[in-house]
Specification:
Structural class of chain A: alpha/beta
Radius of gyration of chain A: 19 Å
Keywords (chain A): ATP-binding, Cell membrane, Membrane, Nucleotide-binding, Translocase, Transport
Helix content of chain B: over 70%
Number of helices of chain B: 22
Largest sheet of chain A: 6 strands, mixed
Distance between the termini of chain B: 35 Å
Order of helices and strands of chain B: HHHHHHHHHHHHHHHHHHHHHH
Organism (chain A): Streptomyces brasiliensis
Domain ABC transporter (chain A): 9-256
Distance between the termini of chain A: 37 Å
Structural class of chain B: mainly alpha
Order of helices and strands of chain A: EEEHEEHEHHHEHEHEEHHH
Largest interface: A-B, 75 and 57 residues
CATH topology of the largest domain in chain B: MetI-like fold
Protein name (chain A): Phosphate-import ATP-binding protein PhnC
Helix content of chain A: 25-40%
CATH superfamily of the largest domain in chain B: MetI-like
CATH class of the largest domain in chain B: Mainly Alpha
Strand order of the largest sheet of chain A: 6-7-8-3-9-10
Shape of chain B: globular
Radius of gyration of chain B: 28 Å
CATH architecture of the domain at 1-35 and 48-90 and 219-294 in chain A: 3-Layer(aba) Sandwich
Number of strands of chain A: 10
Strand content of chain B: under 5%
Shape of chain A: globular
CATH class of the domain at 1-35 and 48-90 and 219-294 in chain A: Alpha Beta
Number of helices of chain A: 10
CATH architecture of the largest domain in chain B: Orthogonal Bundle
GO molecular function (chain A): ABC-type phosphonate transporter activity; ATP binding; ATP hydrolysis activity
Oligomer: heterodimer
C-alpha cells in the first residue's frame, strides 16, 4: 500500500530524439519533475511541444533516448518489454479520440480494460469472466452510462464515448491515470463532464491524474498544479493556487527562446512519432509549433 | 511583390506544358494496346461475313436446342445441391485458411518482415496457379467427386480472399488497438479485442463475394472432373446433346442470379448495419442522431456525473445481453448457416480420412507436375498462347466499345433522366450475372469451336464488369468542379468533357487494364470448353497425363499475366 505524498512519477533528464543526425527532432529535452500521489496535474503547451510524447514515455509505450525515471516503482530505462507491459497494466490511459471498438457493445469495450489481468485472447462479451463483467458495469454506473451497456459503442456521442473510455481505464484499477487531451474533440458541455469525472475519481480514490490540455482556463480551474512544456522542455511548474491566466499565457506568447527547424524534417518526424493532436488553438508561433512536432 | 505582368514576356511564354517522356511512352503503349486489340479483332476474322455465316448456324442451333430437355426434378435438385455443397465448403475452406494468413501478412499485426513476405508469397501463389490446375491435381488424388472441387476452389480462393483480408486488417483504425496495448494487453488479446471485431463485416462480405465467383467457376471445373451441374453439362456437350446442355445452362444461369441476389442482400444488410460507424471526432450530443428512441434509454438529464451514486448495484443487474428479437434472429441464422455448412461437408465427402489421403499423396502429385516440360509441342503451345492473347485483346476491345456508352448512360451524374440511368444500370447488371462459361458454350455452338467464340464470350462478359466500373467511376467523382464549370455557363457536353471525363479517366484506365488481366486468365479457362487458345492444350495434356506440360502452360500464362500487370502498374502511375 502506498502512503499519501509518496512519489508516483519521478522523471530525471528524460530526453527523446526522433530520427538521426541533422534531421532529427528533439521531442523531449532533459525533462525532470516529480508527481506525488493524489496530485492532479495539468500538462500545458502548444501542439507539438511534447505533451503526448511525454505521456507515452510515462506509460512505457516509448523508450527514451537518454535519461529516464521511475513510474510506480518501475525504472523506465532498465525495464524490459515484459516489465513495461506489467507497468502499463497499472496505468490507465485516456486518449483524445477515445479509441473504442465501435462495433462492440459499450460493456465489452469496458471489459477490454481488464485484458491485461486476464490470460489469453477474448472475443465476445461471454468470454469475459462474470466478475469482470460486473465490475465493468459498476464502472459504467460510476460514469453514468450503465443504461447504455448493451448499445454499440459507435451509437454514443463523443462525450459519452470518452466517459466509456474512462470506465475502461478504471477496469485496470490503476495507480496512475494519464489522459492525453481527453476533451480536445468534445463540445464544452461534454468537456466539463469528462474533466469533472477525471478529477472526482482521482480525489475519491486518491489517484494521481496527469492530463495534457490546451485550454488554459480549464487547466487553471481543474488542476492542483500546472507543468508547462515548450519545444520539449519544462518551462513552467507551478501550483495553480493564486495563479492568474496571464502568468500562463507567457507559455504561448513569449518567444525569447527561438527554436527553428526546417519544416520538411518535421513531417518525417511526425510520421515517426505518435499521432499528433490537431486543431490546437495556439495563438502564435508557427515555427515553434512545426519545430516541436514529434 | 511585383504584380505587374511584363507584356513582352507573355508573348514568349509557353502556353502548353512541355510533354514528359514518360507520358509519351505511356501514350504509345496505350495506342499499341488498342492497335493490338483491333488487329486481333481482324486476324481472328470477327467480321460481318463470319457473323452472317453464324446466323445460319444460330438458327440451326436454335432448332437443335428446343425443346429444352431438363433432367427429372429429383436428379436436377441433386445436382444443384451437389454444386452448392462444393461451393460452400470451398469458400469456408478459403476463409479458414485466409484469416491466419492475412494476420501474418498484414503490416500492423505482424512486425516481422520475413514472416509477412512468406505469407504474402503463399497468397500470391494461390492466386497465380489457375483453379483448373488445382482441380487437375486434386482430381488425381480424390477422383470424381466433391473433394476435388472443395480443394481446388478453396485453395485458389485463398489468393483473393487472403489478399482482401490482409488489406482489411491493414485498413483498421489503430486507435482501439493502441488503447488495449496501453492497458497492457498482449498481442493476441489486441488482435481478438480490437482487430477482428473491426474487420468482421468485411470478412463476411468478402466471403459472400467469393461464394458467387466460386459458383461460376465450379461449373467450368465440371469439365475437368468436379462433380455437380458442371460435370453434367460437360457430359451433355460431349454427347452433342444440346437440348440437355442448354437446359442445364439455363439452370446454372438462374442459380447464379439467385445466389447473387441472396448474397447481395446479405451484404447490403451488413453494410447498412455498419452505417453508424463513422467516428465522431467533434460529435457532441447536439449533432448526434439518436438510435431508435424506443430502445434507447434517456441519458440522465443531470449534468453532474459525480452525483451518480457510487453504491454498487451490479448484483441486481444483468451482465449479459438481453435476448431480444434481433439477437434471437442473429443466433438462429448463425446456427442454420453452420448446419448448412456441415451438411455441405457431408455431401462433398469432406472427411478427416479424405484430408489425410490428400496430405499423403500431396508430394507425389506435386512431383508429377515437375519439372515443367514442353512435351515436344512447343510450337503448338506458343501458337496457341498467341491465340489466347488475341482472344483476350479482342474480347477486351469488344467489351470496351460496348461498355463505354453503356456505362456512361448508366451514370446518374451524366444522364439527365434518372429513368434512363436506371435502365442501363439494370442492363449492365443482367449482363454481369451471366457466367462467361454459358456465353462461351452458346457462342461455341453458334460460331463453331475456336477463337471467335472465345472473343465474343469475353467481350460480352466484359461489358458487365467494365460497364459497371465505368458508371461507378463516373459517379464517384466529386461534383464540385462539374458545378463550377456549369456555373461558368458551360453546356452539359462541355461539363462532361471538361470536368467529369478527365477525372474519371485514370480510374477507367485502371479498370480496363484489370479487365485485360482477367480476360487473359479467362481466355485460358474458356479454351477448356473449346473456345480456342492454350486452354485446350491444357485440358489435353491433363487427359493424357502429361502433367509437366500442364505446368509449362501455367508458367507461360503466368509470365504473360505478370508482364501485363507490370505494364499496367506503370501506366497507372504515369496517368494517376
Amino acid at each position: 500500500m502506498t502512503e499519501a505524498g509518496e512519489t508516483v512519477v519521478r522523471l530525471e533528464g528524460l530526453t527523446k530524439r526522433f530520427g538521426e543526425g541533422d534531421t532529427s527532432i528533439l521531442a523531449l529535452d532533459d525533462v525532470s519533475f516529480e508527481v506525488r500521489r493524489g496530485e492532479i496535474v495539468a500538462l500545458l503547451g502548444l501542439s507539438g511541444s511534447g505533451k503526448s510524447t511525454l505521456l507515452q514515455h510515462i506509460d512505457g509505450l516509448q523508450t527514451a533516448t537518454s535519461g529516464g525515471g521511475t513510474v510506480l516503482g518501475t525504472d523506465l530505462a532498465a525495464a524490459g518489454p515484459a516489465e513495461l507491459r506489467r507497468l502499463r497494466r497499472r496505468i490507465g490511459f485516456v486518449f483524445q479520440q477515445f479509441h473504442l471498438v465501435g462495433r462492440l457493445t459499450v460493456l465489452e469495450n469496458v471489459c477490454q480494460g481488464a485484458l491485461g489481468s486476464l490470460r489469453g485472447p477474448r472475443l465476445g462479451l461471454f468470454t469475459y469472466p462474470k466478475a469482470v463483467r460486473e465490475r465493468a458495469l459498476e464502472g459504467l454506473e460510476r460514469v453514468g452510462l450503465a443504461d447504455w451497456a448493451f448499445q454499440r459503442a459507435d451509437t454514443l456521442s463523443g462525450g459519452q464515448q470518452q466517459r466509456v473510455a474512462v470506465a475502461r481505464a478504471l477496469m485496470q484499477e490503476p495507480g496512475l491515470l494519464l489522459a492525453d487531451e481527453p476533451v480536445a474533440s468534445l463540445d464544452p458541455e461534454s468537456s466539463g463532464q469528462v474533466m469533472r469525472l477525471l478529477k472526482d475519481i482521482g480525489q475519491q480514490r486518491g489517484l494521481t491524474v496527469l492530463c495534457s490540455l490546451h485550454q488554459v482556463d480549464l487547466a487553471l480551474s481543474w488542476a492542483d498544479r500546472i507543468v508547462g512544456l515548450r519545444a520539449g522542455r519544462v518551462v513552467l511548474d507551478v501550483p495553480t493556487h493564486g495563479l492568474g491566466r496571464d502568468d500562463i499565457m507567457r507559455l504561448y506568447t513569449d518567444l525569447e527562446e527561438e527554436v527553428v527547424l526546417p519544416a520538411s524534417d518535421a513531417v518525417d518526424a511526425d510520421a515517426a512519432g505518435a499521432k499528433a493532436s490537431d486543431g490546437d488553438e495556439a495563438p502564435t508561433g508557427v515555427s515553434l509549433e512545426e519545430a516541436g512536432r514529434r | 511583390m511585383t504584380a505587374v505582368l511584363d507584356p513582352a514576356a507573355t508573348g514568349t511564354r509557353r502556353t502548353l506544358a512541355r510533354p514528359a517522356a514518360a507520358g509519351i511512352g505511356a501514350g504509345l503503349v496505350l495506342l499499341a494496346c488498342v492497335a493490338a486489340g483491333v488487329w486481333a479483332f481482324a486476324s481472328l476474322k470477327i467480321n460481318v461475313p463470319t457473323l452472317v455465316d453464324s446466323a445460319g448456324n444460330a438458327a440451326d442451333f436454335a432448332s437443335r436446342m428446343v425443346p429444352l430437355d431438363f433432367p427429372p426434378l429429383g436428379e436436377l435438385l441433386g445436382l444443384v445441391w451437389q454444386t452448392l455443397a462444393i461451393v460452400l465448403c470451398a469458400t469456408a475452406l478459403s476463409v479458414v485458411l485466409s484469416v491466419p494468413l492475412a494476420l501474418l501478412a498484414a503490416r500492423n499485426t505482424t512486425p516481422s518482415a520475413p514472416v509477412r513476405m512468406a505469407s504474402r508469397t503463399v497468397v500470391v501463389l494461390a492466386r497465380a496457379v489457375p483453379d483448373v490446375v488445382f482441380a487437375i491435381a486434386a482430381f488425381r488424388i480424390f477422383g470424381l467427386g466433391g473433394m476435388t472441387g472443395v480443394i481446388a476452389l478453396g485453395l485458389h480462393s485463398v489468393g483473393m480472399v487472403g489478399k482482401l483480408y490482409a488489406d482489411a486488417v491493414e485498413e483498421i483504425d489503430e486507435g482501439p488497438r493502441n488503447a488495449l496495448r496501453a492497458a497492457g494487453a498482449g498481442r493476441l488479446q489486441q488482435i481478438t479485442g480490437a482487430v477482428l471485431p473491426q474487420v468482421l463485416p468485411s470478412l463476411v462480405a468478402t466471403a459472400l463475394h467469393r461464394l458467387d465467383i466460386n459458383l461460376r467457376v465450379s461449373v467450368v471445373l465440371g469439365f475437368v472432373g468436379v462433380g455437380g451441374l458442371g460435370y453434367a453439362l460437360s457430359t451433355a456437350i460431349g454427347r452433342i446433346d444440346y437440348q440437355r446442355a442448354m437446359a442445364l445452362a439455363l439452370v446454372v444461369l438462374l442459380l447464379c442470379f439467385a445466389a447473387e441476389s441472396v448474397s447481395g442482400a446479405i451484404r447490403r444488410n451488413l453494410l447498412h448495419q455498419e452505417e453508424p460507424r463513422g467516428r465522431r471526432r467533434f460529435g457532441g450530443r447536439s449533432t448526434r442522431a439518436l438510435p431508435a428512441a424506443a430502445t434507447t434509454p434517456a441519458e440522465p438529464t443531470s449534468v453532474s456525473v459525480a452525483a451518480v451514486p457510487s453504491e454498487p448495484r451490479a448484483n441486481s443487474r444483468r451482465i449479459s445481453h438481453r435476448w431480444d428479437a434481433r439477437r434471437v434472429r442473429r443466433c438462429v441464422l448463425l446456427v442454420l448457416g453452420l448446419a448448412l455448412l456441415v451438411a455441405s461437408a457431408v455431401r462433398s465427402d469432406v472427411s478427416p480420412a479424405a484430408l489425410g489421403r490428400g496430405l499423403d499423396s500431396l508430394f507425389p502429385t506435386i512431383g508429377d507436375f515437375l519439372p515443367p516440360s514442353g512435351g515436344g509441342i512447343w510450337a503448338t503451345l506458343f501458337a496457341d498462347l498467341w491465340v489466347t492473347l488475341q482472344i483476350a485483346f479482342a474480347g477486351t476491345l469488344i467489351g470496351l466499345v460496348l461498355a463505354l456508352p453503356l456505362g456512361t448512360l448508366a451514370a446518374r451524374n451524366v444522364v439527365r433522366s434518372p429513368a434512363v440511368a436506371r435502365t442501363f444500370r439494370t442492363v449492365i447488371l443482367l449482363v454481369r450475372g451471366i457466367p462467361e462459361l454459358i456465353l462461351a458454350i452458346v457462342f461455341v455452338v453458334v460460331t463453331g469451336l475456336g477463337a471467335v467464340a472465345g472473343s465474343l464470350a469475353l467481350g460480352i462478359g466484359s461489358v458487365g464488369l467494365l460497364g459497371k466500373l465505368v458508371a461507378d467511376s463516373l459517379e464517384e467523382i466529386d461534383s464540385g468542379p462539374a458545378r463550377a464549370v456549369l456555373a461558368a455557363g458551360a453546356t452539359r457536353r462541355q461539363v462532361f468533357f471538361a470536368a467529369i471525363l478527365p477525372r474519371a479517366w485514370p480510374a477507367v484506365l485502371a479498370h480496363l487494364l484489370y479487365q485485360l488481366d482477367v480476360n487473359i486468365r479467362s481466355a485460358t479457362l474458356l479454351g477448356i470448353v473449346g473456345a480456342g487458345g492454350i486452354g485446350y492444350d491444357l485440358l489435353n495434356a491433363a487427359r493424357v497425363l502429361q502433367f509437366d506440360v500442364v505446368t509449362t502452360v501455367v508458367l507461360l500464362i503466368l509470365a504473360v499475366v505478370l508482364l501485363v500487370e507490370g505494364v499496367a502498374m506503370w501506366l497507372r502511375k504515369v496517368f494517376a
